[in-house]
Amino acid sequence: MNFTARVTSRAFDVGSAPSILPSLRMAALGLASVALSLLVVFPASLPAAAEPPTTVAQARNLIKQLQNDAAGIDQQYTDVQEQIKEGRAQLRLKQADAQAQTKKVERLKLQASQIALAQFQNRSLDTAAHLVVTPDIEGFLSQISTVQKVSENQHAKLQDYQQAQANLAALQNSAETELVTLGEKEKQLQSLAAGSDNKLDQAKKVLAKLTADQQKQLAEAEKKAAAKANAEARAATKAPAKTNGRAATKASPKANAESRAARKAPPSTRSSSTGSSKGAKALAYAKAQLGEPYARSGAGPSSWDCSGLTMMAWGSVGVSLPHSSRQQFSRGQSVAKSDLRSGDLVFFYSDISHVGLYAGNGQVIHAPRPGKSVEYIKMSYMPYAGARRPG
């Protein structure tokens, strides 16, 4: 962001009073030092720094950065969505527990009321008086023993009622706290969406500042980049796939035909014999989505974000993953970069804000960012953060 620091000075009429001239000079120096300090505190506020991109390459890089920033915020968005989803599930459990506890408290409350009424109605002479007037002392003492046992049982029931009340209060408080937390996360979700939209708005403004000819050049540059990525993908597909540092045997024409058929078929109808592992089948699912557009929180069937694509790809083979690159980074087992296999999850950037599926020969399939579509890309084009193997 650019800021404008302004310093306003005032003119003083010094007249002919020489005695105040030194003071005025000191004041002027003070104002100058304030102006310099403001410039130091806000270096980005200099007008020169606010200049828009002057070349197509600069504009393209800035737009790409803003779109990448938006995609990173989108992953924060999906992460919070997952937290809200989990929080709602926890709230439902707590509410169900509180409902069951309420019924228990009502039942114990009725018993406690009956006990209190019985104790009130059975008030009579104390034990010493009964011993004086009763003709059957042994029988009376036996009755006292029975009454004491009943009294102990009643006391235990009263304690159960008190404990049940305390447990109910704790459950209700926990549910209320969960509701407050969910409300805060909903607000956070709105803030993140606004932040992502703001980045995209900035990207649009950069594009709007270009001339028609520059915009045409930018579009051509994007086409060339896409063509280059497709050429690299085709070359990688033709090359022998590498696993654990060794070249795999070349697939037969029949195997290739089966692979193509598997990519086109719905996940539920794909043959379990296609592919050598769940990872290969997950990759085949991702390949079937090539060319489909990016969308915030996209998880198919026709638009995707990065973690939505990986989640659904692995979901097609029965492996459940959260819709969040950061949360996916904690699933499965860690994999060394040199041991990557088809379908492994590959993560990028220090904040784990992006994920794709390993496609062999140093490439991944991913849903990149707003304005782009599911594509192949070399891993080396993004800062590598780690890899995991689900399942």
Give descriptors for this structure.
59% helix; 9 helices; disordered N terminus; elongated; 391 residues; 8% strand; 8 strands; two-stranded antiparallel ribbon; 6-stranded antiparallel sheet; alpha+beta
State the order of secondary-structure elements, H for helix, E for strand: HHHHHEEHHHHEEEEEE
Rg over C-alpha atoms, rounded to the nearest angstrom: 36 Å
Structural class assignment: alpha+beta
**Which sequence of strands runs across the widest sheet?**
3-8-4-5-6-7
Low-confidence stretches: 1-50, 128-133, 241-275
Helix content: 55-70%
Summarize the structure.
The protein is of the alpha+beta class.
Notes on the structure:
With 391 residues, the chain is an alpha+beta fold. It has 9 helices and 8 strands. It has helices spanning 21-41, 56-121, 127-133, 137-208, 212-238, 253-264, 278-287, 306-315, 325-328; strands at residues 242-243, 246-247, 333-334, 345-348, 354-360, 363-366, 375-378, 384-389. The protein has a 6-stranded antiparallel beta sheet. A two-stranded antiparallel ribbon has the order 1-2. A hairpin with a 2-residue loop joins β1 (242-243) and β2 (246-247). α2 runs antiparallel to α4 (137-208). The radius of gyration is 36 Å and the shape is elongated. Mean pLDDT is 77; it is low at 1-50, 128-133 and 241-275.
